[in-house]
Amino acid sequence: MKHIHLLPWLIIGALCAAAFFLRFVLWGYSFSALVCVCLAGVIAFYEVTGMLLPHFPGAIPLIRQVFTVCLAIGTAVVIITEGIIIKASFGSPSETVDYVVVLGAKVRVTGPSASLWDRIYGAYDYLKANPEVIAVVSGGQGEDEPIPEAASMYEELTKLGIDPDRIWIEDQATSTWENLHFSLDLIEKRTGKRPEKIGVLSSEYHLYRASLFTKACGVEFVGVPAKTSRVTQKINHFMREVAGVWHYWLLGGRYDTP
After folding, report:
1. DSSP states of 97-152
2. pLDDT at site 4
3. pLDDT tens digits, residue range 168-187?
4. What radius of gyration do the chain's Cα atoms show?
5. What is the pLDDT of residue 253?
6. Cβ-Cβ contacts under 8 Å for 18 (sequence gap 6 or more)
7. CB of 145 closer than 8 Å to CB of 109
8. Is 201 in contact with 102 (CB distance < 8 Å)?
9. pLDDT at position 257, please?
10. What is the pLDDT of residue 251?
11. What is the block-wise mean pLDDT of the chain (258 residues), using blocks of 10 residues?
12. Rounded to two decimals, what is the model's pTM?
């Protein structure tokens, strides 16, 4: 058996400990925990196959070569996808729209989550800078939420001084597709006309996927980014969004709606 190198296994242990902490101690960092586990698994694979090499000199090199090629392809796919997400994260907030849909996020018993606060402040800044725009705050009430996300956004935006008449509430949506679909229905119901273009305000990492859903609704998309205030959360969510984008690409963006 090949001599065991201590350093790689210390790194594996540290990654596993970090994964446990991110998954079970911190809230909202499960994807970062998964990344740590995957990194630990990659290191463990090369260490274990290295120790087995003297016993299986014919098979191990081939197995490692196939794994390395797959790993390289997967890494390239992730990097390219992340590049697309980052490019879309800047949005085009200076483009003129009549309506902006503000996508909801978690509401806790103590109030809006960090992500929801980021979107509330982003909506406030955008509405102050664009006094003619109507906001549709969109988000229903989850089983563990005290009030609908839309109601929470409406409450905080009016407290910040935004005219209540400029904020329309859509409080039934439970997904991004429903956020956009129901918001467009609300605009059409209140105005008699379905808009051809809407602004969508969401966390910057979410704008690319939001653009796909918006275009699937047959409407031109204008992205308005809400900057994520927590750096660790931004890193986690930008990584997680890669999985979300591929979920969309593989399963499609059109979902049945009531």
Report:
1. -SEEEEE---EETTEE-HHHHHHHHHHHHHHHH-TTPEEEEE----TT-SS-HHHH
2. 67
3. 999 999 999 999 999 999 99
4. 23
5. 57
6. 33, 36
7. no
8. yes
9. 36
10. 85
11. 77 97 92 97 96 94 98 98 98 96 96 97 98 98 96 98 98 95 97 97 97 94 97 96 94 53
12. 0.90
**Residue 94: HSE in the Cβ half-sphere, 13 Å Cα cutoff:** 1
**Structure confidence at residue 256 (pLDDT):** 42
Residue carrying the six token digits 């003129």 = 96
* Side-chain half-sphere exposure of 214, counting CA atoms within 13 A: 25
Phi then psi for residue 166, to 5 deg, are: -90, 0
- Distance separating alpha carbons of residues 91 and 97, to the nearest angstrom: 13
Confidence at residue 86, expressed as pLDDT on a 0 to 100 scale: 98
What is residue 1's predicted lDDT score, i.e. its pLDDT? Answer: 46
d(CA 256, CA 34): 30
Amino acid of residue 253: G
Q: How far apart are CA 182 and CA 57, in angstroms?
A: 61
Beta strands 107-108 and 111-112, pairing class = antiparallel
d(CA 27, CA 168): 31
202 within 8 A of 167, measured Cβ to Cβ? no
* CA distance readout (Å), 184 to 129, 168, 175, 217: 23, 11, 14, 9
Tokens 């925990």, located at residue: 33
Distance CA 104, CA 233 (A): 17
Reported residue count of the chain is 258
Residue 190 gets which letter from DSSP? H
Two tokens, residue 224: 């308005």
